[in-house]
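Supplementary Text 2. Reproducibility record for the structural model of the 386-residue chain.

All settings were left at their defaults, and a single model was retained for analysis rather than an ensemble. We include the record here because the model underlies the residue-level annotations in Supplementary Table 4.
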Amino acid sequence: MDFELTGEQRLIIDVARDFTEKELFPYEEEVERSGRVRPELVDRIRSRAIAAGIYAANMPEEYGGAGLDPLTLALVERELGAASYALQYIVARPSNILQACRDEQIDRYLLPTVRGDRVECLAMSEPDAGSDLRGMRCSAVRDGDGYLINGTKHFISHADLADYVILFAATGEEPGPRGPRKMITAFLVDMGTPGFEVRPGYRAVSNRGYHNFVLQFDDCRVPASAVLGEEHQGFQVANEWLGSTRLQVAAVCLGRARRAIDMATRWAAERTQFGRQIGKFQGVSFKLADMQTRYEAAELLTLRAAWKDGQGAMTDTDAAMAKVYASEMCQFVTDEAIQIFGGMGLMDELPLERLWRDTRVDRIWDGTSEIQRHIISRAMLRPLGG
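Retained model, structure tokens:
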């Protein structure tokens, strides 16, 4: 792997960093205080991201996206990751799953989403099916030339901004090694479809302004053309793209951790106690050394996985190692940064307590740390019959 960035990559990083500092940082406190992002601010950030060329950067150029390779995309996500998630998310990275769109779905969903005219949300999790997707109860039953959908989804992020949902529902059963297992199909369902209701979700301590919702389906009828990919092949549709979402989480954690390290380092150099800079005390200096070491290890894992993704060689294990290590690194770094600041670290005059709160969810969503470890250990044991 060549660790030297190209001139173009450095330019893109500079653009993303400048955008983050000028267009996102100034509104963080407003979002924290109000718990929402004003619609006019959403429009402003989206339009300026489009003008800067970093909107829908993950989508191929043939669809109107920036067409960034996975490594360059991870570098952009790292820069955006330093900001409040409620704000950085508006610089949309549409779900890669949309690349499974076919025929009229391309004009109705994919292209408008890449342009910023439409916004999607992803619905997998249920009250009784989080990590166990095969246990989902939301069902789609064939009914004439369409499907009837019934069930509940929860923890559905930014459904308040979405125009449609990428829904995963059970559409049958097949034999498995441990008995029958659900077959899953992906659907594109417009907001406002009869029988489809969006309700407020839960109040989370992480990512204020980035809301979650409950989706309720009661005999919601959709046409057969709403199927994304092939019937019963929802897992194949999801698995083809889920690795990239785990890299996104890892890259965002890098940006958040980098901001915390920079703040803690400056504080250690400027703050004096007992007549000395606190960075000269071993109790502080060793913390900084551990923070930086873990950060760079996480960065290497993340960028290596992204580079391999660009070569078509990334494995589930690569993405899992990047996500689990980066998310746990970020929790460690933000916690140690607060310790270095002392009591002031927990005051909301500084962004540290928010960074600390926000990163807690990174060890849960897009696959828990336990799921990532299962993926890694399974790949180690399988060749030996384990």
